[in-house]
Design a protein that fits this description.
30% helix, globular, two-stranded antiparallel ribbon, alpha+beta, 5-stranded antiparallel beta sheet, 236 residues
Length: 236
């Protein structure tokens, strides 16, 4: 009888934990950029724009905001008339992606921002010195630096999981104290494959936005050098 009661308690505990797990925000359906979810939101945005005389269902952001996070979609404007509910992988539903629009003037296109990257950068900003600048470990390029994470209280060097592959991407800082993700590794891979005619001075981040649903948020502009390698372009 005691064994029966013990088994019953274990089963009830397993059911309870299973029921609580979905709300963690890290279930598989909350992590993947499903094409059908992107298509559903795109159709809702297109329908809203058509019915509103050209307006877009976006939140207002400062004009100086990074172009990749400048036009977040306001789901309250398209739910429930255009869309039943926010996608499971969206921030609004407990997921890790912010749905945004790119190319709003010519061809409003739904894209995603991986918010886990923002969390890492936010933590670094909290740990920067009182004057807003982090300690520098070395110079990577003119005006671009690697932070001294040990002096900032970290046990090891920080990086972020690439939204495009299994690679860990470095974090860099600029002379004004801002921190960014270094997408050079991913850009270099695409440069080896593309047939696009690219010349020094062109911002090559379009290679990422053209090939993936996720945008290179929190990045500096990149161009190519004479060896067709990606280099940061601070004057852009």
């Amino acid at each position: 009888m005691k064994n029966f009661k013990l088994i019953a308690v274990v089963i009830m505990l397993m059911v309870f934990l299973a029921g609580c797990g979905y709300k963690s925000g890290y279930e598989p359906e909350n992590l993947l950029p499903y094409e059908d979810q992107l298509l559903a939101v795109q159709n809702a945005v297109d329908s809203f724009q058509q019915d509103s005389g050209g307006l877009l269902p976006i939140k207002t952001r400062d004009m100086e905001t990074d172009q990749y996070i400048k036009y977040p979609i306001d789901f309250s404007k398209i739910i429930p008339l255009k869309l039943g509910k926010a996608p499971a992988n969206s921030y609004e539903a407990g997921g890790i992606y912010q749905y945004v629009l790119m190319d709003v003037e010519e061809n409003p296109t739904v894209k995603l921002v991986d918010l886990r990257i923002a969390d890492t950068l936010r933590d670094i900003n909290h740990r920067k010195s009182i004057n807003g600048f982090g300690p520098i470990a070395e110079t990577i390029a003119e005006g671009v630096y690697k932070l001294d994470y040990e002096k900032m209280g970290y046990d090891s060097e920080l990086s972020v999981q690439s939204p495009y592959s299994d690679t860990q991407l470095p974090i860099v800082a600029t002379g004004d104290g801002e921190v960014y993700v270094d997408y050079s590794i991913e850009l270099n891979r695409l440069l080896q494959k593309t047939e696009e005619k690219i010349k020094p001075g062109d911002d090559i981040r379009f290679l990422l936005t053209d090939n993936f649903a996720i945008v290179p948020a929190y990045s500096l502009p990149y161009t190519v050098n004479e060896k067709n390698e990606p280099v940061i372009m601070l004057n852009k």
